[in-house]
Write a structure and sequence with these properties.
The chain is an alpha/beta fold. 39% of the residues lie in helices and 16% in strands. The protein contains eleven helices and twelve strands. Strands 1, 2, 3, 4, 5, 8, 9, 10, 11 and 12 form a ten-stranded mixed beta sheet that branches. The protein has a two-stranded antiparallel ribbon with strand order 6-7. Helix 3 (100-111) links the parallel strand 4 and strand 5 (116-118). The two termini are 36 Å apart. The structure holds ligand PBG.
């Protein structure tokens, strides 16, 4: 009988050969850790739908930042849980220089300056209506929302944010923010646009974590992209790059790996995926039931973002993943 040719199993035979031919690797440098902040001091609150995730008061976020740095994590992304009494129709708390998020940015940059701090630019934590933009007569109004988002972005830049993360999906917000940042002298503040952000049902647990699910009326389909639309996702990325985004994101992650690859191939720019709350919750739930090996599934899911063309990934698993990367997991 003729020998199979090629014998592709040759290079899979031992761990050393597999490591030698491995095409992609995940490093702690690729991880962005999203964290939830709450008021008070010495406070942690569990997020029921995200086992293993807590909200932390600013002092404990600073502590967590130091630990994360020691584990090799270099970027954290902050999401505030805003007291319902501060939520209004015009979302003024969003650009309060002393709001929870801005206080946390200052505290981290003061105590752990080497940690890059990323923010969320969207009105939903501050909005009595739970939407990412301002609501008038049932409509999420675009241009007035952009004005508010620009004020919010400037306050975050002023507080010392390294990366602004506009997640609101209003049209024209990247250009407006970039112009305002340049005029105000914040020429080094980077923007990672949530460019291909889909109207997904995978965000449910996050909305619990930031306390937005109670306030939200309706859905976000008039501004976030239809999950069926790949070409439109690429148009959004192209538009945001033209308006001045430094980096772009695809969100959610796992069901949208095709978009990661398409974005990377089409533009060759720094590309990130957000492994969102629902993805995290699914893995944790199955692992808690003993149905999957949680750690291995976590690492597989994260390395697959690299294979799909991502330069990095926002993941609630960042601390666990960084630890496993250090100790070796294969
Ligand atoms: C809000 C925002 C959302 C997420 C990040 N920023 C939720 C939404 O758009 O409703 C989702 C993150 C996650 O699910 O982990 N602008």
């Amino acid at each position: 009988m003729k020998a199979p040719d090629p014998r592709l199993r040759r290079t899979r035979r031992t761990a050393a050969l597999r490591a030698l031919v491995r095409e992609d690797r995940l490093s702690a440098d690729d991880l962005i850790w999203p964290v939830f902040i709450c008021d008070g001091s010495g406070v942690t609150q569990k997020v029921g739908s995200m086992p293993g995730v807590v909200r932390r008061s600013v002092d404990l976020v600073v502590e967590a930042a130091a630990e994360a740095r020691d584990a090799g994590i270099r970027v954290m992304c902050l999401f505030p849980y805003t007291d319902p009494s501060l939520k209004t129709d015009l979302c003024e708390e969003a650009w309060n220089p002393d709001n929870l998020s801005n206080r946390a940015i200052r505290a981290i940059k003061a105590e752990v300056p080497e940690m890059a701090v990323m923010t969320d630019v969207a009105l939903d934590p501050y909005n009595a209506n739970g939407h990412d933009g301002i609501v008038r007569d049932g409509e999420i109004v675009n241009d007035e929302s952009v004005e508010a988002l620009v004020k919010m972005a400037l306050a975050q830049a002023e507080a010392g944010a390294d990366i602004l993360g506009p997640s609101d999906m209003m049209d024209g917000r990247i250009g407006a923010m970039r112009d305002a940042l340049e005029s105000a002298g914040y020429i080094h503040t980077t923007i990672m646009s949530y460019a291909a952000k889909y109207a997904s049902s995978f965000y449910g647990p996050f909305r619990d974590a930031v306390g937005a699910s109670g306030a939200l009326k309706g859905d976000k389909k008039t501004y976030q992209i239809d999950p069926m639309n790949g070409d439109e996702g690429l148009r959004c990325v192209e538009r945001d790059l033209n308006e001045g985004a430094d980096m772009v994101m695809v969100k959610p992650g796992m069901p949208y790996l095709d978009m990661c690859r398409r974005v990377k191939d089409a533009f060759g720019v720094p590309t990130y995926a957000y492994q969102v709350s629902g993805e995290y919750a699914m893995i944790q739930a199955a692992a808690a039931n003993g149905w999957i090996d949680g750690e291995r599934v976590m690492m597989e899911s994260l390395t697959c973002f690299r294979r799909a063309g991502c330069d990095g990934v926002l993941t609630y698993f960042a601390p666990q993943a960084a630890r496993l990367i250090k100790t070796g997991w294969e």
